[in-house]
Predict the structure.
Amino acid sequence: MRQFTTDDLTAIMRGCAGMDQSGGFNGAELHVSYSDLGYDSLAVLEIQAEIQRRFGIPVGDDAMDAMPTPAATVSYVNTLLRAGV
Amino acid sequence: MTGRLAAITGIGVVAPAGIGRKAFWDLLTHGRTATRTISLFDATGFRSRIAAECDFRPACEGLTPQEIRRMDRAAQFAVVSAREAVEDSGLALDAMPDSHRIGVSLGSAVGATMGLEEEYLVLSNAGRQWLVDHRYGVPHLYGYMVPSTLAAEVAWACGAQGPVALISTGCTSGLDAVAHGAALIEEGSADVMIVGATDAPISPITVACFDAIKATSPNNGDPEHASRPFDLNRDGFVLGEGAAVLVLEEADQARRRGAHMYAQIAGFASRSNAFHMTGLKPDGREMAEAIRVAMLRARIGPADVSYVNAHGSGTRQNDRHETAAFKRSLGERAYRVPVSSIKSMIGHSLGAIGCLELAACALAIEHGVVPPTANLHTPDPECDLDYVPNTARTCDVGAVLSVGSGFGGFQSAMVLTEPGRVRP
Amino acid sequence: MSAAVITGIGVIAPNGIGVADYWAAVLSGRSGIGPISRFDPSPYPVRLAGQVAGFDPAALIPPKLIVQTDNWTHLGLHAAALALADAAADTGALAEYEMAVVTASSSGGTEFGQREIEKLWRHGPGHVGAYQSIAWFYAATTGQISIRHGMRGPSGVIAAEQAGGLDAIGQARRVLRNDASLVLTGGTDASLCPYGLVAQLSTGWLSTHHDPDLAYRPFDPQACGYLPGEGGAMLVAEDAGHAAARNAPHVYGMIAGYAAAFDPAPGSGRPPVLEWVIRAALSDAHVVPGAVDVIFADAAGVPERDQAEAAAIRAVFGPGAVPVTAPKTMTGRLYAGGGALDVATALLALRDGVVPPTTGVRAPAAGLGLDLVCTEPRPARLRSALVLARGYGGFNSAVLVSAAPAASGGGGPNKEKEAMTCGSSPRTT
């Protein structure tokens, strides 16, 4: 079964959210909210939409609340992948 | 100050469920909703598949085959509204001594997107060809690409040769365009301004872009009740379309010719939140500042405001933002003045809505009736003002405040006042 | 009433970025016209344009902002930053509601829009990105500049094709009179994507000539249309008293007069309005035609439009009475960016006492009656410059800029005094 990793998220954010091309997350940043990392609500929506497009999983309207941080995103997406939705 | 003031002497409307100002006012005062399943294109696969559409047949509205071919839907709305407004004003524009004193200020948020998208599909082989084929380009394609064409069409239709502008400040375009026209009359650059706003955004690209940010209501099963500003169960705005055009005249001139005046533009101000392109801070600070300055210019205080036409788009963020702005700018009066959103009935037609709302405000002054907020059944505890739920209200309407809030951070507020002694 | 002065200029043009680079290019006749490289133009009859070379948004604009905006806005954001820096305006220290942004837009984020429509129709609705809602629409640049610099005054966006840049400057002056003390104004454009170019082709006004030096030759006997370009300029317009109080480092000149009007509907038989607009702008500035030292022409390069413009200039000023120039031959027509760039160029001409050339034209067509400054710059004593712009559909606008009152040492001919009194008395029409 496919896993969603921090590297996947980083690649997506470099592509669509303007993350620095050499940038990534350090351990602490994974648990910081997107807004505190400097990503606005539109960027978060775009990240979610890109996950949906690439991984073929439905990211619902409640996703915004379910994945406030990069770590939460990774875990939420993996839950969806495991559930096979 | 020159002491010149702009008065509204004509109103023309193309709105969902009603072409013409009479049908429009009838819909609003009966609290009916014009929101429905999208019929303008097949919206299968879209998140939001509902909108408030105009039942608009251009040939029946007097447009010639040549005009219909040349004009995008938004331009058609604008020209039909402009003709109704000019006729309503009783002004013989052809007979005016100097057509350079007649101008146009038209607002539109997205211009001729519909025409642009339709032509793109032809030229790109339904999106498959990035290097689009110029051999299939229609002669008026550039007219679609530049939104200024909308204002040009109205100027041609009215014989205006004075200052002509297309104002495009997102969802405050309508309010800002009317304000621009009023400013030109006040400063003496024009004596008559044909002002208004038009938008026809119910096309796949615009519906999809609001889907992408989850701004529109996904309540596809119950479109008639989907636009629910200030209701706890709101879930986004419902896209609309239409146009409204007003004839503005210098008030003394209008009085001298015995024109019927609906209202006068008493004050306006706009501010930007410089915060976020789509986000709003909950404190309503910049909108409150716009309201404060608009009232100052109109020389009225909160106690004088007899009706507030809210932006009331039906997003949680907006409803809280502007409720806070009203409290901040009107103080205690905010709790007593009727506040309503006609977007509950005709949806949110982006730039056009600001002028449709001003038309409703002018008609509210004229008839002494305040239109309701439809679909308001479960009040949001955080929105604790009098939103005139579901039923229109008869009351004396002297001074009206209309506000708008737009992508880009724009916040605009206008005060209309009753024309006073010349009212019949 | 205090005058509206220009205290900052930010240029981002096909032949130069920043005032110094651009102005040096203009005076030396260095053109920014070249083959279109942004996409493969070979299927199209027009393959040349003015592209801004050496503009790297990634080095100048935060990456999170770049992904959310079209190239048109990237250009606008950088031009705005240059203008504010040139004006030494510390937006963090000035009153937030006293600073406004008024830009012109001609066609919005064309390339961004084409890309998103393509995604929609190739892949489906879920593939349209979240930024389409804020990148494509005409208000994107004003909104983003307002946010980036914390400018919370009465902002606006005007669309009038090529005339819009001058209308934005006229509106900036209006805002300064009523509502603010500093307005960032001007415009940029970038419609060089396949759909943008193809839409422009529909007018029949673009030049299909393939020689970059000869393709855009307004007023030339061989005039054969114009070339499009990208870029533009942003200006800091400021209340003269406000500029003086904060010791603004430059006062390039003032917005002495402005007027706009609209041509009659095609086929109406009524005359075009450009002559009326020129007279109205001069009247607004309380000056006579003799006070104008140079005219920056709209210069469509389309023979009948060139003739109409020349006729209006002749009617007001007399044949060959005032030097006329169109340095936009080096950039192409920049639509929303054109008016502000022409005004910026006019202000630099006033500053340095030199009329920049209309490159590519050896001599204007006989019968136009124009003293066109061709090929080489012409030194001249300049106090007032008239800038003209005509937008597709019938928009006609004129801005008169003149040397700022503070910069004048007094004395001089009467016409200069007249030029300096503008703004101090009510408009008489």
